[in-house]
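Supplementary Methods S3. Input chains for the assembly prediction are listed below.
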Amino acid sequence: MSKVYVFDHPLIQHKVAMIRDKNTTTKDFRQLVKEIAMLMTFESTRDLKLEDKTIETPICETTVKMLSGEDVAVVPILRAGLGMVDGVLELIPNAKVGHIGLYRDPVTHEPHEYYCKMPEDIDKRRIFVTDPMLATGGSAVAAIDFVKERGGKDIVFMCLIAAPEGIAVLQEKHPDVDIYIAAKDECLNENAYIVPGLGDAGDRIFGTK
Ligand code: PRP
Ligand code: URA
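Predicted C-alpha cells for the full assembly:
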C-alpha cells in the first residue's frame, strides 16, 4: 500500500488558505500554487540519494555529499497541473518535463485523454505527476496508467488538495505510488467538486471563468 503524506508545515497551510479564498486574484493564485509546489518539492525529495564526492574548498580538500544523479521528471496533468511545474523546476532545474492532457467530462466526471508526451528515458527517472486537485481520482489514475504504459516505474503523485474518495481510489489502483498532499479535505459534492476545496483549479490558474 502506498504512503500518503499530508503536509502540516505552517507556510504551506497559510498559502493553501489563501488559494481557497474566492477573492484571491488569478495573478496571486498562480503565484501561490507555484510557491506551494516548490515547498512540497523540498519536502517530497527527502529520500533522493546522495553520494560522497571529493572537492577542494579554498582551504583544503574535503568529502561532501551530492545528489547521486538520480534524474527527475515532472509530469503535469493538463491544464491545472501546469501551474505546479515552475515550483518543482525552481528546486530541480534540470528535471525533464512530460505532459498529459486530460479533461473530466462535466457530466460523467470520467477523464478523457487528448495529449501525452514523455521524456524518452522516462523509465530511468523519478517521476513527479502533478495536479492541484485529487477529486474522484479518475484523472490521476488515468495519468499514472499512461506514464506506466510508457515505461515509468518510480512515480509519486503531488497535489494541493485531495478528497478522501480520490486518495482511496488512487491507493487501490496504484498501490506503488506515494501521494503528497498539501491539504486533505472533507468530501466531494454532487458535482464531484472537493468540499471545501478551492473551486475549479484550471479556471482559477488561467483566469478562464
Ligand atoms: C481537474 C483537476 C484534475 C481533475 C480532478 O481538471 O485539475 O485534473 O479535475 O478530478 P478527478 O480526480 O475527479 O479526476 P479538469 O478536468 O477540470 O481539467 P482542466 O485542468 O483542463 O481544467
Ligand atoms: N477539479 C477541480 O478543479 N476542482 C475540484 O474541486 C474537483 C475537480
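Residues 77, 79-80, 103-104, 109, 111, 131-140, 166, 192, 200-202 surround PRP (ligand 1) (CB under 6 Å). The two ends are 38 Å apart (CA to CA).
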